[in-house]
Write a structure and sequence with these properties.
The protein is of the alpha/beta class. The chain has 12 helices and 19 strands. The chain has a 7-stranded parallel β-sheet. A 6-stranded antiparallel β-sheet has the order 1-2-12-15-18-17, with no helix packed on it. Strand 1 (47-48) and strand 2 form a beta hairpin. Helix 6 (174-185) crosses helix 7 (187-204) and helix 7 (187-204) crosses helix 8 (229-253). The radius of gyration is 22 Å and the shape is globular.
Length: 482
């Protein structure tokens, strides 16, 4: 979301007035230890593969917002996927833009599709699963950004004033808000949006690297006079986003019956606002909120006493628990990652995300400063190395618990093996100290070796109760527990 300073007071005041954000006095900072199972942990189902294994996606967004036309996507290289894999990740949320795919109405760019295809080839080679994200920022190029084409932008002549110092505030410009209303309501634009998704679905259905389609990034809408932001967000989600997602689901299913569909609420959920989304009538749908805090996006340090993570977790889990949908968080991560409390933020954020989601994509895998995960040499920037922990990309059975203790550097997976034989996969990030893996359970054993990072496989007797423990070793072969 990356909100600017000018919106902090407006967003937070609106949310507090609506009673959606937990007060600081009630906050209980999240622990990196395993939390007691909550109701939503039993109600939210896992993401699964074709063999019924429970999946965990860990990775980053991959993007090229700077180039378009013939140069579109040129900033994305094979290195992105090779480095993701080398650091233990298995997931990339790939940003694609409608204005590049259909620059003129009804004329789809074969060159752009081939570029997406090449990127997916790199992902397949390095065993990275890709979510194709129909991305928009401030609607699209009519307002100086990317997303919905100019030919599909209708403003009714309402004003727009650019604000490059606080670009997210441009979502609240009258022309931008009216453009969203037309996208949701005009029959010809509805058909055009469905058609572009059919082009993508027909082209990439069955591709071994593609796990899902994110139908629109951070959708917004038009506020009515007198509405606060939480009220407007819930109305937009109920009246515009829910029917749009159902329309697009029907269109995609005419071309692709199996690929997961990812649906987002408005970005206002980042302040702990429960979504107003209704039921999406498709059995392979994933709830894909984003995880941003307005104050931190404007440069503030993490405030553990504010209770933001707890409020967000409580609010964001209600909808998928009610509708029995997996959760994958599509974007998260602060800009100023080296502030004094950011180490604690990363520990507590990762622990929270792991409690209720089937995975997440940080923002963003690039080589440099700002939001980039790594520097020009590919080394993690301050605190972002905490996103690279051991995890189980696929579990052949029912997960009992799945926790990582950042203090003890210990990962523990407990599961009941499926009745039919299957392979459970482990991913260990690079470690100069090395990893020690132990497993218990009937006929359970670890196949392969990855003492300093890599992939392992666990097999067990069907129906066995299995516990896998992974510990980072100390400098003299002892388990180091500071």
């Amino acid at each position: 979301m990356r909100m600017g300073r000018a919106l902090i007071a407006l967003v937070v005041a609106s949310v507090l007035a609506a009673g959606a954000l937990a007060p600081a006095a009630s906050a209980h900072p999240a622990s990196t230890q395993a939390a007691a199972p909550s109701a939503y942990e039993h109600a939210i189902p896992p993401l699964t593969d074709s063999r019924g294994r429970a999946l965990t996606l860990r990775g980053w967004n991959v993007e090229d917002k700077a180039n378009r036309g013939e140069a579109a996507l040129s900033a994305i290289t094979e290195r992105h996927f090779r480095d993701l894999r080398a650091n233990g990740f298995n997931f990339a949320r790939l940003l694609v833009f409608w204005d590049d795919l259909e620059p003129r109405r009804g004329q789809y760019s074969e060159r752009y599709l081939r570029k997406i295809e090449r990127i997916l080839g790199w992902a397949r080679q390095h065993r990275i699963q890709v979510l194709i994200d129909a991305h928009q920022d401030v609607f699209g190029p009519a307002f100086g950004h990317r997303g919905i084409p100019e030919w599909a932008t209708r403003t009714d002549g309402l004003p727009f004033t650019p604000n490059p110092d606080d670009w997210f505030s441009e979502y609240f410009q009258p022309a931008v808000q009216r453009a969203f209303t037309h996208l949701y309501e005009d029959p010809d634009l509805r058909r055009a949006q469905a058609a572009v998704w059919q082009v993508l679905a027909e082209r990439f259905r069955g591709h071994p690297a593609v796990i899902g389609y994110d139908l629109i990034n951070e959708p917004m809408g038009e506020l009515r006079e007198g509405e606060d932001l939480p009220t407007a967000a819930r109305r937009i989600e109920a009246e515009h986003l829910t029917p749009m997602y159902n329309r697009l689901a029907r269109a995609i299913r005419a071309k692709d019956r199996t690929t997961w569909l990812f649906v987002e609420p408005t970005p206002i959920v980042g302040e702990g606002v429960p979504t107003g989304l209704g039921r999406i009538h498709d059995s392979r749908t994933v709830y894909a909120p984003h995880f941003y805090n307005t104050a931190m996006e404007a440069g503030a340090d993490y405030d553990p006493s504010a209770g933001w993570i707890e409020a967000y977790e409580a609010a964001v889990t209600a909808y998928p628990a009610r509708h029995r949908m997996p959760v994958v968080v599509g974007e998260w991560g602060p800009l100023n990652n080296s502030l004094p409390n950011m180490g604690r933020f990363y520990r507590e954020a990762v622990a929270s995300l792991n409690r209720y989601s089937s995975g997440w994509a940080g923002y963003v895998w690039c080589y440099g400063g700002g939001y980039c995960a790594v520097d020009e040499r590919g080394r993690f920037r301050t605190n972002k190395e905490q996103t690279a922990t051991p995890y189980a990309p696929a579990v052949a059975g029912t997960v009992r618990s799945d926790t990582y203790d950042a203090t003890a550097r210990t990962y523990r997976l407990a599961y009941r093996a499926a009745t039919r034989p299957g392979l459970t996969e482990l991913s260990l990030p690079p470690s100069s100290r090395g990893w020690r893996v132990s497993v218990s359970g009937r006929a359970a054993r670890v196949l392969g070796k990855a003492p300093y990072g890599g992939r392992l496989t666990v097999v067990a007797w069907p129906g066995a109760e299995v516990v896998v423990t992974v510990r980072e070793a100390g400098p003299y072969g002892r388990t180091d527990r500071p």
